[in-house]
Structure formats: structure tokens, C-alpha cells
């Protein structure tokens, strides 16, 4: 019986994805310095030599993990219906949901950010995502300034940069040690930017 070519491709993609997830979990737990290809292969029940069929080098696997992690964060950058304030609130809610459901993501993203400073290939993956997140927030804030949701003296890019800085800081430091502080920080952003009676994020 001949195996369907599409089925083979699908199986190959599934195995490659399993390797990416195993490497992702390892980086979240041990950092990049703890990433060993043999251990990753063992986690998915694969021979070490077979792993190289999917990822010829360790750098190729690392880049795949970086792409996966940035995509996961990028899923919170959506353009929902509603006013600019509705859109910003929805973004905060999506971020909080992702922080709760996948704290490892923000640990990996921090590791990636540090590595990107030294690795041009990683930086090339991360930079478009970072610029896209900033542009997403700037567009929302600028639209809100124009319709009077925020004061005219607000600088959309400065405020967007501050939002990103707060989220990056609290998601790394407090996501496992003190999730309550992360929630408090996001609620405070709502308080400052949306209204004085921000609903609970939970």
C-alpha cells in the first residue's frame, strides 16, 4: 500500500513541531545554555541522528523555537471590533490570558531577547515582531487620541513603548513568583489608560 505524500509531509511536520516544543520547554526550564540536542531527541522518543533530518544544526532548532515563541506572542496582537479603548482593553485581556496559560512563553521570550543582542539571525526573527507590536499599539493609541479618548498631548509611540516595557518586566519577574503582581500591573495600565473603574482581568 502506497503512503500518501501529504500524509508523509504531515507526519514530518508533526515530528518537527514536537522537537520545537521539547526545545522550547527545555529553554524555559534551563535557558539556552541547558539546551542539548540529544536530550531534546530523547524527550520525543527520537534517535539523536534522526533529529538532524529535521534540524541540521542546533542553530536551526533554536531559530525554529524563536519563531514559534514570537508567533505565540503575536497571537495577542489582533484587531478586534470596537473603539480604540475597546481594542486596547482586549489586548490587555489576551496578554493576561496568555501569561496565565503559558508562563513559560515569557521566560523563553526573555531568553530570546538576550540572545538576540548577540545573534543577528535571532535578531532578524525577533525585530519584526517587536516592531509589529509597537506599531499595533501606536495605531490604537493614535486613533484614540484623534477621537478624544486620550489627551492631545499624549505621544502614541512613547506611551506604546511604556506599555511594552511594563508588560515585559512584570511578565518575566512576577509570572511565576507572584502572578498577583503581574495582574496588578496590567490592571493599573487599564486604570491609567482606559478608565478608573477597570474590571478585573480574571
Automatic annotation (TrEMBL):
InterPro entries membership: BetI_C, Homeodomain-like_sf, HTH-type_TetR-like_transc_reg, HTH_TetR, Tet_transcr_reg_TetR-rel_C_sf
UniProt KW Transcription keyword: yes
Gene3D superfamilies: Tetracycline Repressor, domain 2
An MF annotation (GO) of this entry: DNA-binding transcription factor activity
Portion annotated as DNA-binding: 36-55
Lineage top rank: taxon: Bacteria
Domain HTH tetR-type span(s) in chain numbering: 13-73
Keywords of the record: DNA-binding, Repressor, Transcription, Transcription regulation
Record-given protein name: HTH tetR-type domain-containing protein
Amino acid at each position: 500500500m502506497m503512503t500518501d505524500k501529504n500524509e508523509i509531509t504531515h507526519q514530518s511536520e508533526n515530528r518537527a513541531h514536537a522537537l520545537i516544543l521539547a526545545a522550547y520547554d527545555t529553554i524555559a526550564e534551563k535557558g539556552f545554555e541547558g539546551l542539548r540536542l540529544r536530550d531534546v531527541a530523547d524527550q520525543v522518543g527520537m534517535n539523536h541522528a534522526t533529529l538532524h533530518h529535521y534540524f541540521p544544526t542546533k542553530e536551526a532548532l533554536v531559530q525554529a523555537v524563536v519563531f514559534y515563541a514570537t508567533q505565540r506572542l503575536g497571537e495577542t496582537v489582533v484587531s478586534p471590533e470596537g473603539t480604540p479603548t475597546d481594542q486596547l482593553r482586549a489586548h490587555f485581556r489576551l496578554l493576561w490570558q496568555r501569561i496565565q496559560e503559558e508562563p513559560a512563553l515569557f521566560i523563553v521570550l526573555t531568553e530570546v531577547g538576550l540572545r538576540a543582542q548577540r545573534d543577528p539571525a535571532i535578531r532578524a526573527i525577533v525585530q519584526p515582531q517587536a516592531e509589529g507590536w509597537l506599531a499595533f499599539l501606536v495605531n490604537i493609541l493614535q486613533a484614540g487620541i484623534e477621537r478624544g479618548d486620550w489627551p492631545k498631548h499624549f505621544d502614541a509611540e512613547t506611551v506604546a513603548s511604556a506599555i511594552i516595557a511594563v508588560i515585559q518586566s512584570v511578565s518575566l519577574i512576577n509570572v511565576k513568583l507572584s502572578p498577583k503582581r503581574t495582574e496588578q500591573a496590567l490592571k493599573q495600565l487599564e486604570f491609567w489608560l482606559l478608565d478608573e473603574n477597570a474590571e478585573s482581568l480574571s
